[in-house]
Amino acid sequence: MLNHQYQRKQTMPTRLWSALLCVLLLLTPLHTAAQVVFEARIDTLLMLIGEQRELTLDVTCGAKQKLKMPDFRPQQPINGQVEVVDILGTDTTLLDDGKRMQVIQRYTITAWDSAFVLLPAFTVEVDGKPYQSKQLALKVLTIPVDTVQVDQFFPNKDIQRNPFSWDDWKPVIWFLVINQLLLLILLWLYTHWHENKPLIQIIRRKRKLPPHQVAMNEIERIKGERKWAEEDSKEYYTELTDTLRNYIRERYGFNAMEMTSTEIIERLLQEQDETALAELRQLFTTADLVKFAKYTTMINENDANLVSAIDFINQTKIEVDPNIPEEEVIVPEEVKQLQARSLTMKIMMGVVIFVALVAIVYAVYLTIDLIR
Q1: Distance separating the N- and C-terminal Cα atoms of the chain
Q2: Residue 42: which H helix or E strand, with range?
Q3: Per-residue pLDDT at 130
């Protein structure tokens, strides 16, 4: 019984101290998070009159605390001998997973009198409570003066003219040359765009077919489409007579496409006799009736007119010497490209103009920099 009471007396203080220790451990992070650290420093302790040095104010406090830094302005004296030249800016960094923050404010300071300067303690406010830094010491040195020859004065020196060097002007010259080349390219592009010419003209040598062979190839195409077998033969006779007109134009040298059927026959009578043109006259007459009078032909009649056209071509054709040199023509793919070329040309001209302007501006910048 006595032993049990003794153990109980020993256990109660132990539990009390454990509870107090837990409370302290819980309160310790809050205390640490709210701790304020303020430091002021200068990058050097010695400087000449008129030189500039950097003053840094470093504050670490809670991230949610309200911080007020010293309100220094340019040309504002810190004390009678040191003044602020410029405010370099403020850097803020979060620490401890965003619980604390570090604020660093930098100033440029200078002094105009040689002396040992003791800067006063700087003050910041955190949640309305002031915190001061340590005092800083700064030694301002004067420029050495020749005390032996105090009466010796020197006049102002004349403006020095640096010797001319081509190496200094090489970048300007190169940019001007590049700019001239770009202007020539722009002129070439504009000329092709204005005259609707392709950038690259693909040429190949191709033997031109004689008129009779071109006409026979076209008749073979008409035969393959079998339009002569249809009831409405207007399109068939239109294609057939156009083929003959093109052949006559190339063969005899007059514009048969712009002439009537009667005018073509009268013109051909100067080259051929009436007998040779009888079937051709009948073909043109039938074609005119079909196209303009809605005349309906028979299939065998259409077939006969097709044979008449072939006979006329075979009777009047002129064989071409195979040794005739081939003539240069543009391939069909290039002709199709002409339609889509306009937008591409405009984009290319825009790019060239932009690069040329950049080259001009940079060349002017280099020239001004060299003249200064």
Answers
A1: 105
A2: strand 37-42
A3: 92
